[in-house]
Amino acid sequence: DPARERPIREPVWRFRGYELRASEFTTAMIHFYRGEIHRANTWRNRLDATTNWAIVTTAAVISFALANASNSHAALLIDMALILIFLWIEARRYRYFELFSYRVRLLETDFFAAMLVPPFQPSPDWAETLATSLLRPKFPISNWEAIGRRLRRNYLAILGILLLVWCFKLYSLPLPALSFSEFAARATIGPVQGQTILLVVGIIALFLVGLALATTRLQDATGEVLEQPQVFKGLGIERVLRPSPHDRVYGTGIWQRPTARRDEFMTMVITDKGAAVAEKVMQDLNRGVTALHGEGMYTASARQVLLCALTETEIDDVKRAVRAVDPEGFVIVLPASEIAGRGFQPFEE
């Protein structure tokens, strides 16, 4: 019966006035995913290039230092300093790699994985978090975590080999040292006493080892598979993971799901046209608005104060909405330490 037939409508993605068919949105996300994978791989190759520089330089300097007993051991110390520069460069590159890996993980955990398991929908905050990363990029890991991770991955071993070769050269060439004073004397470089050089090198080595150990608790990196240390299980300590109620899609305790919180703000709009401004904000941003009654003390006239909780990407939108209705209005943006409720973090978190 034609009268009983209903037109088949394809699901539509609606967001801030834009409409995309589901197929178009999925295609866009797939291309975006491929692009972010390529950018992450580009920075990963740059990481490998820096490590290769360090290895080649170390091999060349060790060959030179051990080739002849008369060759100065200072070359090994200079190479150690050069390796530390490579470490700093690689840590900076690693932060860029993590930035793009962070977006890739957001897509994997909250877009692709959400297609496979109930309730077949992404976490409420994933699109806003991804948009914030695109509009206002921020490194997801600190510089200390980047340095510590690259130090543990590659550079402790390289520096350790250099330190052992340096000690071997001081001890054995041209003949084995018979005492510590003789060993220290061989470390002398120009006017700098050997004991001073040994002390400085020892302090730097201890600092690097301490840094590598101290940064093991930093687990914000998403670009690598981070295994759970077995010691945590033995001690009965929960793994370093910020659980989220959004994990309902995949089961609790997803390892390495990006969990950085969005920057959230409370906006106060002071205006004479409260109803019109509120309607504009609710229509354009789909956000709730609460009205308070105020009074301008200078003019002794009534004012309406509108409160609206927003995320970082919506601040410019609310300013445009207020300006369109009341160019004389005031917009005050206050950072919020936490906002819980519909559209933000659930209360149970």
Strand numbers in spatial order across the main sheet: 4-5-3-6
Stretches where pLDDT is under 50 for at least 5 consecutive residues are 1-8, 228-255
Structural Rg: 29 Å
Distance from first to last alpha carbon:
51 Å
Strand coverage percent: 5-15%
- Structural class by helix and strand composition: alpha+beta
Tell me the major beta sheet: 4 strands, antiparallel
Which bin fits the share of residues in helices?
A: 40-55%
Kindly report the average pLDDT value: 81
User: Could you spell the SSE succession in H and E letters?
Assistant: EEHHHHHHHEHEEHE
Count of individual helical segments: 9
Number of strands: 6
Integer count of domains: 2
What are the salient characteristics of this protein?
6 strands, four-stranded antiparallel sheet, disordered N terminus, elongated, alpha+beta, 349 residues, two-stranded antiparallel sheet
